[in-house]
Amino acid sequence: MLLVLLMGAVVTKTDSGNGCGNSWPLCYGELLPTAPKLETIIEVSHRFVSAWLGILVIILAIWAWRREPHKKEIKILAGSAVFFIVLQGLLGAAAVIWSQSSAVLASHFGFSLVSFASVLLLAILSFEDRDRPFIAKVTPGFKKNIYWLFVYLYAVVYTGALVRHTGSSMGCGPEFPLCNGSVLTTLGSQASIHLLHRIAAVVLFLWIAFSWYHAKKHYSDQKVVNKGFQFALLFVILQAVSGIMIVLSNLNLFVALSHGLIISFLFGTLSYLVLIVYRK
Q: What range defines the domain where residue 227 resides?
């Protein structure tokens, strides 16, 4: 799942989405195009790996459903993994055949993250003691805080994907924290899209920092909850650093890929926290 996420990011960052023209599932009418350009190799590789992953996810979902038929969360996660990986595949195909808006293209990465988190949680649950599933005992208020934090994280992910697909990664120029020498910018411009993502990311950092402090203060006896928010805080700090480095390095490919990788770790961590507080 991580490999496919990274390959999808490479396709976007190298503008290889049109590496096969508007031909799908074949590439220029061929299974393996002759004398392909670099962008064609990147696009075809992503298609092959994604197709193979889709088969593996379906096998995993059926296997998990049959192995743990009594667990409600297994059924939900298995269905979610299959549904969203198929959905993001169809969305990718539609983007190749018909031109899509930036808003629609931005949802592609979001759907991939949901499928990734579903597979990750299935993997974690497969190692869990069947007779003693872990349940986090927190107040209803803190439980709602975790739920809304997760929803907000998804919104921040969407704003980041929108930055990429609108070509706004350098919308504020090669500077930080100012945006083209100012703290404000014109609405509707690439700079405003980039600045929106920056502001949303700052709020996310403060929210996770508060949740980490609250968990440390009030749930010190629950190691998993504390560790979860420790990792969440670490990942959001690394995410912020990598985001700044993208701007300062003028869209260095490896820095940009690390940005996508770290957000996957953060999304997976909060997904698990949602799972353990959801359980009755």
A: 136-280
Distance in angstroms between the alpha carbons of the first and the last residue of the chain: 29
Which backbone phi and psi does 85 adopt, to 5 degrees?
A: -75, -35
The catalytic position among 30, 39, 43, 175 is: 43
Q: Are residues 193 and 224 in the same domain?
A: yes
Higher pLDDT: 32 or 259? It is 259
**pLDDT in the model for residue 146:** 95
Q: What is the dihedral of CA 213, 217, 221, 225, to 10 degrees?
A: -20
**Are residues 81 and 113 both part of a single domain?**
yes
Do 151 and 276 fall within a single domain?
yes
One-character DSSP codes across 135-185: -----HHHHHHHHHHHHHHHHHHHHHHHHHHTT-TTTT-S-SSSBTTBS--
Between the alpha carbon of residue 62 and those of residues 50, 65, 69, 78, 79, the distances in Å are 19, 5, 10, 7, 9
C-alpha Rg value of the chain to the nearest Å = 20
Judge whether 43 counts as a catalytic residue: yes
Phi, psi (degrees; rounded to nearest 5) at 182: -140, 165
Mark whether 104 and 236 lie in a shared domain. Answer: no
- State how many domains the chain has: 2
Same structural domain for residues 258 and 192? yes
Question: For 33-52, how does the pLDDT look when each residue is reduced to its tens digit (9 = 90+)?
Answer: 777 888 888 888 888 888 89
144/128 same-domain check = no
Cβ contacts of 12 within 8 Å, gap of 6 or more: 164, 165
Q: Say whether both 224 and 265 belong to one domain.
A: yes
